[in-house]
Amino acid sequence: MYTRDDLITLKDFYKNQLLKDTVPFWFPRSVDEEYGGYLLMRDADGSLIDDDKAVWIQGRAAWLLATLYNTVEENEQWLSASKSGIDFLNNHCFDADGQMFFHVTREGNPIRKRRYFFSETFAVIANAAYAKASGDEKAAQKARDIFTTCLQYMSGGKKLQPKFTDTRPSRGIGGPMIMMNTAQTLRETIGDERCDEYISKWISDIETYHVKDDIKCVMEQVASDGSIIDHVDGRTLNPGHAIEGAWFILHEAVYRNNNKHLIDLGCRMLDYMWERGWDAEHGGILYFRDVHHKPVQEYWQDMKFWWPQNETIIATLLAYLITGNEKYARWHKMIHEYAYKHFHDKDRGEWFGYLHRDGSIAQTAKGNLFKGPFHLPRQEWYCWQILEKYINS
Fold first, then answer.
1. Beta carbons within 10 angstroms of residue 116's beta carbon
2. Rounded to two decimals, what is the model's pTM?
3. What is the pLDDT of residues 247-263, one digit of tens each?
4. Closest residue by Cα to residue 273 from 353, 335, 190
């Protein structure tokens, strides 16, 4: 069990890591002073690997900077850097049909789209956080407008490009998860009266279709009726992703005055996927598992990626602070110690993104099309904030 002194030590650790290690690795050097936005594809020493820009990470970085301004310090450099990302997103990253690109050149010329709308969700939270920080009503309206577009994508009323044919329809957990967190951020920054109702719906969808209490599992995708699709893709679990969804639900439980049903649901999801994902031999959360313990198709299935560790650190700490259950304190200590021992670059700051199963470094990049200043700084910021609130309550 964590003592009060332990929790104070953890709070200080996360605060210091965020402000003295993680954020300084990225900023101010990643701000593109010539074209706007951020240059985030960086090697271990911070040198640039590529000057292309992943649109969703542009949004994530702009959100982070504005959030730091809103919650940590009214630092004008953070606000100015956030505006750089907001302007780049809004001026260069939308196609004529309204859908956002996934990958653009440094100048903002389109390279490709994806068949999902995650770029849009991060543009929502970026514009919302920036609007709160700056008072910019145009950014606030932009956040609400993009959120409306995301709702249309979710309902099927607006179609994503490029088109593709799906002859095996399924429900993915990713849509309701990311939209839940997007709505939570929108609600907590500039407000939107639609958020509560939709969040309830998305939580219900996850509980109804994806949480399988009979086999103690959270499915990544299921058939339209919630049944397991007994094929390789349908059986594949992503423990870190489900654990991320668990803490989104626990966060909502706190917002709703420690709602018992949501606490139970979030903790069940965490329990099920810790047991499925924790590597008892080497430590850390494995990337993919098969629901029936069969071989997984993806060759990286037993690697350790950075972000599942970040989400598990949040989930276990939040579960402990809400419930007081010593199991979650034990799990949090296990994942925290594993992650900061193996992923953290103590000499140059930030985390490596990809480890082999045994904890050795697979490659040295700290930024690419999929990794940037988001999961790690969000984890350190969020853990610092919830500990601060808990200690002072």
1. 16
2. 0.98
3. 999 999 999 999 999 99
4. 335
